């Protein structure tokens, strides 16, 4: 799925002739699974999603399985649903697979017991990923698969891309024969996303592995009315136990089937695997036992150590369940004295981690029972943890384990790869045991997601793998992505070697380092990756002879110390000339080949040109032309930089966070930001996952090329710019003019046009280092200069010219007092004067979700508690290193947590229950102590109206008075009341998530929580697709739109979640789109929050997955409303109680054709482009649906035209 | 009455050609026009900008957001067989060609000659009987002399002419300093026909929003005069065939155009107003007019009032202008 060379040589059939391809682990597995199955039922979850997507893509392109059928790929509402559907399809005799990871795998467990208990051939492929505990992590470890070891599934572990490909086939072959279902797993990201050279299994080889009779036998066991049987009975104490034991022979025979399949594969391909494989000195004394990609790193290290004469070895466990105890004993050298079993999981409270326990038990049993024990004495076994959440596991760590085993008293339990200064479990690691073999060419590239670096590197790997395959060359690529989406940084790690590469860890020192964006040199220690004498390639917007002087001291010193050969190109200029915008990828790729000479440059450039043609040729000859022109010009702009003898810079790199940041941020956050998080010791961390909020403000990323400039003379003070800013980087304020006396010279302000704050000054201020340059503020700005209407009150201008003065201005702006919340009128325009308590998140530039969250924090943030479903909003809301939710100057702000994807409504409900209980306690205690409190105070505390800011403020004052009074009361009840007094101030519970949660995986909970009637506010950020995992369809995906798993365009209207909620009659429901009518959005939030029952706000959220430039997001929101795709309404049960129609429509009937809305977005356009006739049909159906829905709503609202009420007036008035 | 005419090497039973419009956008529409008696149908243009913009937008939507974020390496699926604007256009030509017997004239609208050739070849391969190049260009750059604009027009036309074997017509704007000279150069480049003139969809201004807004206005008969003048001038000098477009609404309008030297009469606005049926009204009306005025055939009338043959050639030149001004003197 790379932007370059899109899946090109990945076709297994063409590969059969070339015999070698370069793909990632997910594709390697999917290539087998797609050919061996007829149905895949799944649910997307990182990092397994690409397997399902590829399968869907291939089926959509008509690719057949081994039996000439096109596999059917079905996306479900959750992994639990997928497992159920797999179970059903298996029962009905189909060949079925699924792909999953982590929480998804956990949701499948109940069905896994069933599938295994019924002796069903089935393979699930798992990109093993951390299970969320104190935090979510998308990265790889074995905590998910280890949670399944008791299900009865066989478990097979792959350690590399080739193994993942081969074991996918072995698992299926063995499962069919053994009738035991298999969980085939490989390390998430490290293997699933690593690109490596692969010798693919051709159809013939693959088919030879599969026993057709076993397939027939599976089908013969199908539930069918033609041969009726019953399964899934209920059994009782008399029989269950025996029946359970009846399956033993199948489990006992399973390893034999795996061995047979492995042998058959070896005969066909020469690649030989065992249930366990030992590598190392045949007379080793110290042995490491482990599974997965780490075993490859151990293998590489053992090769080095044994070459140096050390008696060491590694035993790779392939088949983990059924545990091959005998094979393991037999594979260990008889000389083994000490064993370290390494687990990539943590099982708190256990005697040891699972693999350790298995190995220990196997050894103990063997030594106790064998007639001729293999070892002279029971080897000493020690258990260690490594690599949780994809933590690096590299040769120095392997060496540290062997060193520990060599100690007189090896630690009984240990960790490796971290510094544990709390429980002291970690092994010391000698980092100088570094360096990779000289025959490995290593290259590291720093780039931005938007410049295409990763895509070009993926393509380079394919080129090199193909060009060097004949001489046995291997290639490997691994990519480190950003956890932020706007201005995302990518680091590519590429290795090339004349032999297999087993290095499942990041590159330490490289012979080639490229920095595709100069700004990254300021933020990261890029040159730490440079080996002495390495080549450094810079993309610098300077002449070659000027580049040196732009570098900070640290960089100059590193260049000199390491004697780097420095080259530079102004790739941005070349790209601009070629019409490629920021896409410098093919230009830098050309320079890489020229400088690295891994492949003759002219050959490589020819292949780059082919790849460009293959990638863009069909869909975009214009892009082909532009890229080719860029490639042709690139080398003319590549220059060697003359390096002086000594550094000459007068500036150092700026610190990652300002010196004024709090201590925790200085110690912990700053290290994480600088890329040094790996070095932080255990003691640096909160042990329970609790982190401070408001740390995003300390990371100044400066990612915008242009930022808005305010012209107060033109401004009409409508505040719309602040409303739409997704990153809270445009702020408005009113202040006492006297406070501006000390303002910086360039600080702008004008007299405030309203009278609400007396004689006040008004200002619009940009956060210059936090703006992402999305231009939405300029797009929304209605104020035009009469003489020059092109000129608006906000205009984009180069960041470089503005950042210094505006940084100072923004700091001054922040220091000005905030408006008195109680004095701010509650109109859409005025509420923008309230401080946002959500700022500078990592959301995409132009994100359509974040303005809603920001608005919620402005209105209620100082008393809000947020339950956030997993998804985009939990990632930009809570993905470390920094946190965007923040407190106000009183220390109050949103308290935020993420539980899971599927349970968010329930999670938030729990918060409400607790908050209500606390309030109830507080009220009871006030009542109990009433005679010792001031009458008016006690009465006020219990009866106050908190429906507005003034009421809230008054109650806060009363609570303060209460606390003062309680201090003088010597009564345990007073202490108890003091502890809960804050709950007397009304709390606002927000349950936030995307459509994937609300419409699909969490719908059951959403429905139930709405049905319970408690006072919670559900905010559904509806992007109409699974945004965070990359655009898979949800039940919110509109009729006619394409998405992954709905490639031909969804043929069913999106679920009307609002209508479903309205059916309850006690639920406040609103459908909003801030870009179409911000006043209605604000009104809906206010009404939802003030309603003392459940509220549901469904918010239209433009998303990058819609396929258009989000700079036009506001226009698209308008078009969505005007076309009737997104009617705006509010349904208020309070109106029902007052005898009014509860539903109010806040927009008129559709007044533009639906196609005026759909034609602007690629998700619709691609349907038309695939099949114009189908599109016509879908569009017609969608138009009909729009009409029907409008008729229904207007009928319910009791009129056919939009009402003219206050919510429909524009805020600018 | 013999109404036959030759336009761009195509033998037409009569001169009324349905010009490019929404009516000819779909195969059914083309069929309706042919059934209504169009001598030929011009299909809507493939716009150079549309082709380019679609390609850039596709890359921007599919490729540019990719490979940035570990959980979502891409955001949109890439379905099989996603046809480009150009491919869909060519498919429509083939479908139209298969649906009707009358000549189908495709058209290309652009400002540069880059990228035209492949489209022109594809259009030819799809079976179009002729190709109309709409070289639509508003010269706003004060640095660019008129001669450079003309050179570009001629070069673009010549490239396409060499690339295909079907007849090629060029649709011109009237805004050239020496239209007759330019027309001569186009004829020398082998262009088979000229279409006079394209109509600029000139912008309008939204005085409330302070925005320039595009506005489509249908033609009216007042626009005919300019075309008559140039038909008269060019038909006197050139052998290349000429079509009029813009302003022909009635039989009398058509007669004037034909007398001025048009070989074919393209109508759009009249058909949009009155429906395809209007074609047969025009055809019958022309036959009746010729019969009533005792013409033998259309051929006898074509060009009879052009600069070479009209009784008062001065009327096409400066004298006419002078006389007109005098006649307005109070």
Structure description:
The complex is a heterodimer of chains A (1213) and B (330). Chain A has 42 helices and 35 strands. Chain A has 1213 residues and is an alpha/beta fold. In chain A, helix 30 (904-928) packs antiparallel against helix 33. In chain B, helix 1 runs parallel beside helix 3 and helix 8 (251-260) crosses helix 10. With 330 residues, chain B is of the alpha/beta class. The model of chain B has no long low-confidence stretch (mean pLDDT 90). The N and C termini of chain B lie far apart (46 Å). The interface between A and B is large, with 69 and 37 residues.
How do the helices and strands line up, and which of them pair or pack?
The complex is a heterodimer of chains A (1213) and B (330).
Chain A: H1 12-18, E1 21-24, H2 25-36, E2 39-42, H3 49-60, E3 72-75, H4 79-91, E4 96-100, H5 102-117, E5 123-128, H6 143-146, E6 154-157, H7 161-178, E7 182-187, E8 195-198, H8 203-209, H9 212-220, H10 240-245, H11 248-269, E9 276-280, E10 286-290, H12 293-307, E11 312-317, E12 319-321, H13 325-331, E13 338-343, H14 354-369, E14 380-386, H15 395-406, E15 413-416, E16 441-448, H16 453-468, E17 474-480, E18 489-497, E19 510-515, H17 519-523, E20 530-539, H18 544-550, H19 553-562, E21 565-569, H20 571-578, H21 585-596, H22 601-616, H23 621-634, E22 638-640, H24 663-673, E23 706-710, H25 720-724, E24 730-735, E25 750-751, E26 761-766, H26 776-780, E27 794-798, H27 799-815, H28 850-860, E28 864-868, H29 872-878, E29 895-897, H30 904-928, H31 935-943, H32 949-967, H33 972-980, E30 988-994, H34 995-1001, H35 1003-1012, E31 1017-1022, H36 1057-1062, E32 1068-1072, H37 1078-1090, E33 1095-1100, H38 1113-1122, E34 1129-1131, H39 1133-1137, E35 1143-1145, H40 1154-1158, H41 1162-1170, H42 1172-1197
Chain B: E1 5-7, E2 10-12, E3 16-18, H1 27-35, E4 40-47, H2 48-62, H3 85-99, E5 104-110, H4 116-125, E6 130-135, H5 146-163, E7 168-172, H6 179-188, E8 193-196, E9 204-206, E10 211-213, H7 224-237, E11 241-245, H8 251-260, E12 264-267, H9 269-274, H10 278-292, H11 298-301, H12 318-327
Parallel strand pairs in B: 3-4, 3-12, 4-5, 5-6, 6-7, 7-8, 8-11, 11-12
Antiparallel strand pairs in B: 1-2, 9-10
Helix pairs in contact in B: 1-3, 4-5, 6-7, 7-8, 8-10
């Amino acid at each position: 799925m790379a932007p370059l060379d899109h899946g090109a040589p990945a076709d297994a059939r063409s590969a059969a002739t070339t015999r070698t391809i370069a793909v990632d682990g997910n594709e390697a597995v999917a290539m087998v699974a797609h050919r061996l199955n007829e149905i895949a039922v799944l649910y997307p979850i990182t990092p397994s999603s690409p397997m399902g997507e590829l399968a869907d893509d291939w089926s959509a392109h008509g690719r057949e399985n081994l039996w000439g059928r096109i596999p059917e790929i079905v996306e479900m509402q959750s992994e639990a649903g997928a497992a159920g559907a797999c179970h059903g399809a298996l029962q009905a005799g189909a060949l079925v697979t699924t792909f999953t990871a982590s929480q998804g795998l956990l949701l499948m467990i109940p069905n896994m017991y069933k599938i295994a208990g019924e002796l069903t051939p089935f393979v699930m492929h798992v990109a093993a990923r951390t299970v969320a505990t104190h935090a979510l992590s998308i990265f790889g470890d074995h905590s998910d698969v280890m949670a399944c070891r008791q299900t009865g599934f066989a478990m097979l572990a792959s350690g590399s891309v080739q193994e993942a490909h081969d074991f996918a086939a072995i698992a299926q072959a063995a499962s069919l024969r053994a009738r035991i279902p298999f969980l085939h797993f490989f390390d998430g990201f490290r293997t699933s996303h690593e690109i490596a050279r692969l010798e693919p299994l051709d159809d013939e080889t693959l088919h030879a592995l599969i026993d057709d009779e076993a397939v027939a036998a599976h089908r013969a066991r199908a539930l069918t009315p033609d041969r009726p049987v019953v399964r899934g009975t209920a059994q009782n104490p008399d029989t269950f136990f025996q029946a359970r034991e009846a399956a033993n022979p199948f489990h006992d025979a399973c390893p034999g089937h795996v061995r047979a399949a492995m042998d058959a594969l070896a005969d066909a391909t020469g690649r030989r695997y065992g249930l366990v494989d030992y590598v190392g000195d045949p007379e080793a004394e110290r042995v490491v036992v482990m599974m997965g990609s780490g075993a490859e790193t151990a293998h590489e290290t053992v090769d080095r150590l044994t070459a140096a004469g050390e008696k060491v070895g590694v035993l790779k466990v392939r088949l983990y369940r059924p545990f091959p105890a005998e094979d393991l004993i037999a594979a260990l050298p008889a000389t083994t004295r000490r064993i370290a079993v390494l687990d990539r999981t943590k099982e708190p409270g256990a005697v040891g981690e699972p693999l350790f326990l298995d190995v220990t038990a196997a050894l103990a049993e063997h030594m106790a029972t064998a007639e001729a024990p293999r070892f002279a004495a029971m080897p000493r076994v020690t258990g260690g943890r490594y690599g949780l959440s994809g933590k690096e596991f590299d040769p120095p760590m392997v060496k540290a384990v062997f060193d520990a085993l060599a100690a007189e008293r090896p630690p009984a339990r240990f960790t490796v790869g971290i510094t544990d200064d709390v429980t002291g479990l970690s092994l010391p690691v000698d980092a100088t045991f570094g360096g990779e073999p000289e025959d490995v060419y290593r290259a590291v590239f720093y780039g931005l997601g938007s410049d295409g670096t990763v895509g070009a590197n993926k393509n380079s790997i394919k080129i090199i793998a193909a060009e060097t395959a004949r001489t046995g060359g291997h290639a490997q690529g691994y990519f480190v992505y950003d956890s932020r989406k706007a201005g995302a940084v990518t680091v590519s790690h590429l290795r090339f070697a004349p032999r297999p590469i087993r290095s499942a860890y990041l590159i330490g020192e490289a012979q080639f380092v490229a920095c595709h964006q100069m700004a990254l040199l300021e933020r990261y220690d890029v040159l730490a990756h440079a080996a002495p004498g390495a080549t450094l390639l810079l993309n610098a917007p300077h002449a070659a002879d000027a580049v040196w002087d732009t570098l900070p001291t640290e960089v100059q010193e590193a260049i000199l110390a390491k004697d780097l050969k420095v080259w530079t190109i102004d790739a941005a200029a070349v790209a601009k000339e070629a019409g490629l915008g920021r896409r410098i990828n093919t230009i830098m790729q050309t320079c890489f080949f020229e400088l690295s000479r891994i492949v003759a440059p002219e050959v490589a450039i020819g292949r780059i040109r082919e790849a460009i043609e293959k990638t863009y040729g069909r869909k975009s000859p214009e892009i082909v032309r532009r890229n080719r022109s860029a490639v042709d010009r690139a080398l003319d702009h590549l220059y060697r930089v003359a390096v002086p003898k000594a550094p000459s810079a007068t500036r150092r790199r700026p610190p990652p966070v300002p010196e004024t940041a709090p201590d925790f941020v200085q110690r912990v956050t700053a290290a994480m930001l600088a890329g040094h998080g790996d070095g932080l010791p255990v003691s640096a961390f909160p042990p329970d996952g609790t982190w401070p909020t408001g740390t995003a403000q300390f990371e100044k990323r400066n990612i915008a090329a242009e930022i808005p400039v305010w012209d107060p003379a033109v401004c009409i003070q409508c505040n719309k710019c602040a409303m739409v800013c997704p990153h809270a980087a445009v702020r408005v304020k009113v202040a006492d003019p006297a406070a501006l006396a000390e303002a910086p010279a360039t600080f702008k302000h004008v007299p405030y046009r309203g009278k609400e704050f007396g004689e006040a000054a008004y200002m619009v201020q940009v956060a210059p280092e936090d703006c992402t340059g999305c231009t939405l503020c300029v797009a929304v700005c209605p104020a035009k200069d009469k003489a020059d209407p092109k000129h608006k009150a906000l205009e984009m201008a180069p960041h470089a010219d503005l950042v210094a003065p505006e940084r100072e201005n923004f700091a001054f702006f922040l220091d000005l007092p905030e408006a008195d919340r109680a004095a701010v009128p509650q109109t859409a325009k005025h509420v923008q004067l309230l401080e946002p308590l959500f700022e500078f998140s990592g959301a995409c530039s132009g994100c359509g979700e974040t303005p809603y969250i920001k608005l919620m924090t402005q209105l209620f943030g100082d008393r809000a508690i947020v339950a956030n479903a997993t998804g985009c909003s939990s990632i930009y809301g809570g993905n470390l290193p920094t946190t965007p939710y923040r407190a106000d100057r009183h220390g109050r702000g949103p308290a935020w947590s993420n539980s899971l994807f599927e349970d968010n409504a329930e999670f938030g409900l729990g918060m409400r229950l607790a908050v209500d209980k606390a309030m109830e306690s507080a009220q009871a205690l006030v009542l109990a102590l009433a005679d010792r409190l001031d009458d008016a105070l006690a009465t006020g505390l219990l009866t106050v109206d908190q429906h507005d800011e003034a009421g809230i403020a008054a109650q806060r004052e009363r609570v303060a008075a209460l606390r003062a009074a309680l201090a003088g009361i010597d009564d345990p009840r007073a202490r108890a009341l003091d502890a809960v007094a804050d709950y007397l101030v009304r709390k606002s519970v927000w349950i936030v998530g995307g459509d994937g949660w609300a419409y699909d995986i969490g719908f059951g909970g959403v429905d139930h929580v709405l049905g319970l009637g408690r006072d919670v506010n559900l905010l559904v950020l509806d992007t109409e697709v699974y945004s965070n995992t990359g655009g898979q369809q949800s039940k919110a995906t509109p009729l006619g739109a394409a998405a992954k798993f709905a490639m031909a365009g969804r043929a069913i209207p999106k679920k009307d979640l609002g209508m479903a909620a309205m059916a309850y009659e006690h639920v406040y429901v609103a459908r909003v789109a801030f870009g179409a009518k911000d006043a209605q959005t604000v009104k809906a939030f206010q009404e939802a929050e003030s309603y003392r029952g459940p509220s549901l706000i469904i918010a239209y959220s433009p998303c990058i997955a819609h396929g258009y430039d989000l700079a036009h997001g506001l226009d698209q929101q308008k078009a969505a409303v005007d076309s009737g795709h997104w009617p705006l309404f509010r349904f208020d049960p309070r109106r029902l109680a007052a005898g009014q129609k509860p539903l109010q429509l806040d927009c008129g009937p559709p007044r533009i054709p639906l196609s005026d809305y759909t034609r602007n977005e690629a998700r619709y356009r691609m349907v038309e482009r695939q099949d114009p006739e189908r599109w016509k049909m879908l569009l017609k159906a969608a138009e009909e649906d729009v009409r029907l829905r409008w008729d229904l709503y207007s009928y319910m609202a009791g009129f056919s035209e939009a009402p003219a009420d206050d919510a429909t007036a524009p805020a600018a008035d | 009455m013999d109404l036959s005419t030759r336009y761009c090497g195509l033998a037409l039973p009569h001169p009324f050609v349905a010009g490019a419009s929404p009516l000819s956008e779909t195969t059914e529409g083309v069929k309706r026009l042919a059934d209504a008696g169009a001598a030929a149908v011009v299909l809507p243009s493939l716009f150079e900008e549309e082709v380019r913009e679609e390609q850039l937008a596709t890359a921007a939507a599919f490729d540019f957001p990719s490979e940035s974020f570990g959980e979502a390496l891409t955001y949109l699926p890439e379905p099989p067989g996603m046809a480009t604007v150009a491919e869909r256009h060519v498919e429509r030509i083939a479908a139209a060609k298969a649906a009707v017997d009358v000549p189908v004239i495709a058209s290309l609208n652009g400002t540069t000659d880059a990228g035209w050739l492949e489209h022109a070849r594809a259009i030819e391969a799809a079976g179009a009987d002729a190709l109309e190049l709409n070289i639509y260009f508003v010269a706003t750059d004060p640095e660019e002399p008129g001669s450079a604009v003309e050179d570009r027009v001629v070069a673009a036309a010549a490239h396409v002419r060499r690339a295909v074997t079907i007849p090629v017509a060029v649709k011109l704007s009237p805004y050239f300093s020496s239209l007759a000279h330019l027309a001569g150069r186009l004829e020398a480049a082998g262009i088979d026909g000229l279409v006079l003139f394209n109509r600029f969809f000139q912008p309008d201004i939204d005085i409330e929003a302070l925005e320039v807004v595009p506005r489509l206005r249908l033609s009216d008969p007042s626009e005919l005069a300019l075309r008559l003048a140039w038909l008269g001038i060019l038909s006197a000098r050139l052998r290349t065939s000429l079509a009029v477009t813009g302003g022909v609404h009635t039989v009398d309008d058509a007669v004037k155009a034909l007398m001025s030297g048009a070989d074919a009469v393209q109508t759009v606005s009249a058909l949009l107003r009155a429906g395809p049926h209007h074609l047969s009204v025009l055809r019958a009306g022309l036959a009746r007019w010729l019969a009533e005025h005792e013409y033998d055939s259309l051929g006898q009338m074509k060009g009879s009032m052009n600069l070479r043959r009209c009784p008062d050639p001065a009327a096409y030149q400066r004298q006419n202008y002078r006389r007109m001004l005098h006649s307005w003197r109070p």
